[in-house]
TrEMBL record:
Keyword Protein transport part of the UniProt annotation: no
Keyword set, alphabetical order: Membrane, Transmembrane, Transmembrane helix
Residue ranges of domain HPP transmembrane region in the record: 13-160
Transmembrane annotation, as ranges: 12-32, 38-58, 70-87, 93-111, 131-150
Protein name: HPP family protein
Keyword Membrane: yes
The organism's place on the tree of life at top rank: Bacteria
Length: 165
């Protein structure tokens, strides 16, 4: 009896792991298709890949909630763009923009660890303000919408978290 329960639990866990991997795969595949239209999408794939880990493996985490995904990515990208506009790209400007991003995400309660890479990406690629909208905003919206669909209709976990009044 115990072995059967353990085996069923193990199979259930393996299935959940497989589903999470498939969800991340499909979401990134859809986004990668956008790179054929707007090549800047490829630049954001690394932070968005890390977002996939949080959204599909830890959907109940506060870090996986829409406010954090959208707010964290938009805020840190904007900080990178402001830094790019006013400063030269140097190790100190990169470091300050990442540190400021972390602080402001904490201050605004939009902490999303993958977004910490955005200022580095913005400064490294020397992008324009359009980058904030495509691929960052459009990518975040796609991720949140896909996460909502996936977690409500496929994994049946429910997303986003329902906050108690």
């Amino acid at each position: 009896m115990r072995l059967h329960r353990f085996t069923a639990l193990y199979r259930s866990r393996i299935f959940a792991i497989f589903l999470a991997g498939m969800g991340a795969t499909v979401c990134i595949f859809i986004m990668a298709q956008g790179a054929q239209i707007a090549p800047s999408y490829l630049g954001i794939m690394a932070p968005f890949g890390a977002t996939m880990v949080i959204l599909f493996a830890l959907p109940k985490s506060p870090l996986a909630q829409p406010k954090n995904i959208l707010g964290g990515h938009l805020l840190t990208t904007a900080i990178g763009l402001i830094t790019l506009y006013y400063w030269e790209v140097t190790p100190i400007s990169i470091a300050i923009s990442v540190g400021l991003g972390v602080s402001l995400m904490m201050l605004t309660n939009t902490l999303h660890p993958p977004a910490g890479a955005n200022p580095i990406l913005v400064l490294s690629l020397n992008v324009s303000w359009d980058f904030l909208f495509t691929p960052v905003l459009s990518g975040c919206l796609l991720i949140v919408l896909f996460g909502w669909f996936y977690h409500n209709w496929i994994s049946r976990i429910g997303y986003p978290l329902r906050l108690k009044p």
